[in-house]
Protein: Major facilitator superfamily (MFS) profile domain-containing protein
Amino acid sequence: MRQSCHRLLEHQQAGGEEPPLYSPVDQISVVPEHVGREAGGKLTRYAPTEEDEATLRELLLSLQRQVSVMSMNLSAKLDELQRGDRQLETTVALCEIRTQLQELTKSVESCQSEVSEVKRDMVAIKQELDTVQQVKEEIEELREYVDRLEEHTQRRKLRLLEQGLTFFLSYAILAAVLGMLQFGYNTGVINAPGRNIENFMKDVYKDRYGKDIQDDAVNTLYSIAVSIFAIGGMLGGFSGGMIANRFGRKGGLLLNNILGISGASLMGFTKISHCYEMLFFGRFIIGVNCGLNTSLVPMYISEIAPLNLRGGLGTVNQLAVTVGLLLSQVLGIEQILGTDDGWPILLGLAVCPAILQLLLLPACPESPRYLLITRQWEEEARRALRRLRASNQVEEDIEEMRAEERAQQAEASISMRELLCSPTLRAPLLIGVVMQLSQQLSGINAVFYYSTSLFTSSGLTEESAKFATMGIGAIMVGMTLVSLPLMDRTGRRTLHLYGLGGMFIFSIFITISFLIKEFFGYVQEMIDWMSYLSVVSTLSFVVFFAVGPGSIPWLITAELFSQGPRPSAMAIAVLVNWMANFVVGIGFPSMKALLENYTFLPFSVFLAIFWIFTYKKVPETKNKTFEEILALFRNSNGRDSFRDSRLYGSMMNCVNALEQQLPPPPPAPVDEKHDSLSEQSSAGGEAGRPPPPLPPPRFPATGNV
Ligand SMILES: OC[C@H]1O[C@](O)(CO)[C@@H](O)[C@@H]1O
Structure:
């Protein structure tokens, strides 16, 4: 445009006698050519320069000047004509001049309107560019803020990673894992006194019906006593989420002991009451109790554990299970309680963990995460943390929980249906469920429940087989202890892969040992060698189970979810664990009859599948905050939804942080307890480091980012 004006001006200044009779409109391009992007792709600002405006103004003036010159010429000509006598010529010339004058006037007018239109456009473009610039600055500031926030989070995390094991934390863990010990004890307790229980059933039957019970029938009664425990477990495990939300983690555990004491008492008094239905009922009730424990205990532990100890402390769950199992194996031997008179005591001893927990747990604090995120009782959460961390510096933990809360967008709790329908939660749920399956379908309980018969069938004497079985229990405890410190060093994923890989290899060796016996059974040396191989393979199978698949499923399921969906997710995963446990327990004898020497092959196949799944899908959760774990799934769920994006998360953080800095809203009628607590908390002062200052939002209302 500037060029066209100049051309016009130059023409005028060059003294062109006749002003050009065309409209400058044709020459003016409305969109300036030099507004756009530079080579680097950077947006340049076009400002309608003063020079442009001056040029246009000059052009206008020069046109006006010409008009006045021409009108002066015209008047001069008219004067001349009045004086002269060339009447006709004058009239023609006059007409011509008038026409020219009219055209020139039109041209000037059109140029004028064109100029003002261009001016308007230029103002609009300038405004647009200003808006773009403003938004750019806004984004830049936001990015800086997010960077600062990340840096701050990183520093906070480093401080969290320095936390240690305090006396009170150890005490709370010990009190809670009594629930898992109860589970282990009741899983193993029924095996050793099997014969004695069957004798009791035969006696009761004979007294009731006056005749001997058939072998098949007594087997059925005994298997009901064994398996009804798992049915109770499924029920308890599935209700765990609801109980955890309703009564809290600690509250739920305390209440659960009522079931523990009732179930154990029913089993303990079965013989005196001379009624085997009481045993069924007792096993069912203790099953519900154990199911609830498997949901509540890992949840409580993962929620009270500091970030850097979460893996190790989570492994204590499985340690307690194995101690419970070993205890039941040892107490169940003939020399102790595995007798016709001793078995009710053996079963009734399940009251001990329940009573012990009832005594120890009340002194422990409720899960601070539950108090803060689910209940919004900040001061109580602070108090609980101060006791667990043995320090008044708990603001890092509070901030970390707040971050988790923000990241999960303040969903206090999530129903089972919501959990199953949510695309973001589907991936962690699948991982949680497959991890539980990898524990149970690895075949560990085939070894546990049937190890004595497995050992005898591979050539060991009955006596040695019993000792080898006990050895399994002891190895399990020892190896779980060994894996405990590795959990936060090597990481869950790596240990799970080692565990499943080792189990896969030794499950193949177990099959090989069976096959050697089949094909070389006539060679005595081969039989000896095969028995040795069989025992070593089975023990190694158990060792690798303890390395990872024993404990990791319990702790990782709780880790994969934030506070809202955690209870429901635990409930589903635990239900799956109990179901798979039940299926293996019930199905293994038939599987053994059907597949004979290849009994362990299906487990090898499962182990291979679980190894691949873990390798491909399971993320490492070691030293990650719940917020970070959540982000792993948000970023990789394959959907491009803005709500699920990291930017959205950061923006939510910004908005929430901003809300915290705003003056409090006018008081609303709220629950009294909450109210007084929040007062206390503000009186207590936000002693901790506040997040970095947030830039004030300046997005223009019409801004389109
Ligand atoms: O230690 C072995 C035991 O551990 C569990 O897998 C639970 O973690 C039980 O099903 C099994 O009997």
Q: What stands out?
A: The chain has a mean pLDDT of 82.
